[in-house]
Write a structure and sequence with these properties.
Blueprint lengths: L1 H5 L25 H15 L6 H7 L3 H13 L1
């Protein structure tokens, strides 16, 4: 879903659950516009809003963090 939202192909070897999505260690080269696209896709697909930029940054650290965030939001 993340790769689809940012219209990118998976990096060689695939994308690991704990691999950074943003920042200098990321192989995806994502920027703030990509983060907005991912957060909008999450809202559309799961009905989960991420209005706080700190919360969004934390949730989009990796696929594992995003999955945990969505699981917690589903419990609320």
């Amino acid at each position: 879903m993340v790769l689809e939202a940012v219209e990118k192909d998976a990096p060689p070897g695939g994308l690991g659950d704990d691999e950074p999505l943003f920042g200098p260690e990321s192989r995806l080269d994502l920027d703030s516009l990509d983060a907005l696209q991912v957060s909008m896709t999450i809202q559309q697909r799961f009905g989960v809003r991420m209005p706080d930029s700190k919360e969004t940054r934390r949730a989009l650290t990796s696929i594992a963090h995003l999955a945990n965030h969505l699981a917690q939001a589903g419990k609320a």
